[in-house]
Amino acid sequence: MSVDLLVIGGGPAGYLAAERAGHAGLKVLLIEKENIGGVCLNEGCIPSKALLYSAKIFDYAKTGKKYGVTFDLASIDQATVIKRKKKVVKTLVAGVKVVLKRNKVEIINGKALITGRNSEGFVVNCNDNEYIAKRLIIATGSIPVMPPIKGLHDGYDKGFVLTNREILNLIEIPEKLVVVGGGVIGLEMASYYNSVGSEVTIIEMLDHIAGQTDKEISTILQKNYEKKGIKFNLSSKVVIIGNDSVSFEFNGEIFEVPATKVLVSIGRKPNTNDLGLESINVETNKQGAILTDKYMRTNIAEVYAPGDVNGKSMLAHTAYREAEVCINNILGKRDIMRYNAIPSVIYTNPEVASVGETEESAKEKGLDVTIANITMKFSGRYVAENEGGNGICKVIKDNKYNKIIGVSLIGNYASEVIYGASLMIETEMQVDDIKELVFPHPTVGEVIREALFAL
Q1: 43 to 89, 180, 233, 320: CA distances (angstroms)
Q2: Does the fold of domain 152-266 match that of domain 2-144+269-330?
Q3: Closest to 142 measured CA to CA, from 5, 260, 44
Q4: For helices 446-454 and 414-426, what crossing angle results, to 10°?
Q5: Distance CA 260, CA 264 (A)
Q6: CA distance 417 to 421
Q7: CA triplet 208, 254, 192: central angle to 5 degrees?
Q8: What are residue 142's phi and psi, to 5 degrees?
Q9: Which residues, listed in sequence order, are joined to residue 409 by a DSSP beta bridge?
Q10: Which CATH number describes the domain made up of 152-266?
Q11: Domain boundaries, the chain
């Protein structure tokens, strides 16, 4: 079988690339070894949000008295939460399949192996069949990093140690959950299981949580978590995972915390093993990420690599845009990928969202900036809906060009507001022009406009 485009991987980058190419009239074959939708749709972005929304409703029920609403005997039914999560995933996966079919994309379930290139194109084997493609998109995503911690692999085999995949399917709520890693996945799952009754401990090697998030905001998030009972051990390294405990090193001393389950979430790495990349000499870096240029091309002509597999920005929305850049260039429409205005969100309660530079990154780059830092209480809606909320909004202005280059927020609705800041940065709007925009009132988004006048 010969096709115009063969896509390996059915996650956000892969399925959107296939959809766009099929819509443009190309003959497209999509090979996915597990489930259409990839990690994001099946065991990441979507299922975690389903769980977190259930936790948010439960939190509202428990704290309703502050708003004049009393709930008697509010409880969480974990089995029902997981059942609903599966329904949400099933609905969305079915939707993706319908769109692919509508655009005449052929889907094969199986493991793809690139075996070389001949005069007709790239040769790919799957399920003992051979396929020839004029162009190739490698969108195999990423896999969890499993560090060389003593007892980790034994614990995983026994079901004691979990990754993002298994943590989303627990029917029983663990009494004591230890989270190794204070990044996005770890924080979101810590937030959920803390809300539904687990005693949660987070162990993080850095001296702060939430990775590259603005440190003032990550500190506020940590304080909110601590008020809810989550325990933190920062600047700490896990050394042993036992049968019912986790041992970690802090300042040269070894400490032990009990655990019913352990979530390992220290990051993800590009999934490039056993693809046959060497058969066509596709270049990767030391971490295994496929090297790409701004057109999403690899070093091999007609081979592209969007999504987590290139290791540049492991976010589903980045993957979508990278896929579009691939297809536009394949179709002869010159397009480039830009990474300066990609928003990032942590869907905890409260939410955290940011785009562009943080206070720390601007300082590291030696940029001449002015920073406005205001409370979210400048938003009337935020005050009305968040009793005791302590969120903030930080806006960073480049003084040389009088443009916004970074926005960070902590507070509910931050995930829905941040796209506006992304638009401001992407289009390089002047601060004075943004000030003239009319924001709806009362909304949480107004806080960004208020911050501009505070600059």
Answers
A1: 9, 18, 27, 17
A2: yes
A3: 44
A4: 50
A5: 13
A6: 7
A7: 45
A8: -140, 165
A9: 353, 393
A10: 3.50.50.60
A11: 2-144+269-330, 152-266, 344-454
CA distance 220 to 226: 10
Scanning the structure block, which residue is given the tokens 């900036």?
Answer: 369
Contact criterion met (CB below 8 Å) for 384 and 68: no
Top-level CATH class of 2-144+269-330? alpha beta
Residue 59 CA to residue 61 CA, distance in Å, equals: 5
Task: Confirm if 186 and 200 have CB atoms less than 8 A apart.
Answer: no
Model confidence over 48-103: pLDDT tens digits?
A: 999 999 999 999 999 999 999 998 889 999 999 999 999 999 999 999 999 999 99
Cite the active site residues.
441
10-residue mean pLDDT series, the chain (455 residues): 97 98 98 97 97 96 93 93 98 98 98 97 98 98 97 98 97 98 98 98 98 97 98 98 98 98 97 98 97 98 98 98 98 97 97 98 98 98 96 98 98 97 97 96 97 95
CATH architecture of the domain 344-454 equals 2-Layer Sandwich (3.30)
Between strands 231-233 and 199-203, the pairing is parallel
Give the residue among 132, 138, 130, 137 at the shortest CA–CA distance from 118. Answer: 132
Taking the C-alpha atoms of residue 176 and residue 166, their distance in angstroms, rounded to an integer, is 16
**In degrees rounded to 5, what are phi and psi of residue 84?**
-65, -40
Dig out the tokens for 209 from the structure.
């949580």
What residues contact residue 59 under an 8 Å CB cut-off, 6+ apart? Answer: 195, 349
pLDDT for position 221:
98
Give the separation between CA 406 and CA 426, rounded to whole angstroms.
11
Sign of the torsion formed by the C-alpha atoms of 220, 224, 227 and 230:
negative
How crowded is residue 216: how many other Cβ atoms within 10 Å of its Cβ? 16
| pLDDT confidence of residue 343 | 98
User: E strands, 251-399, where?
Assistant: 253-258, 261-264, 268-270, 303-304, 344-346, 352-356, 369-375, 392-398
Structure tokens at 441: 């009132």
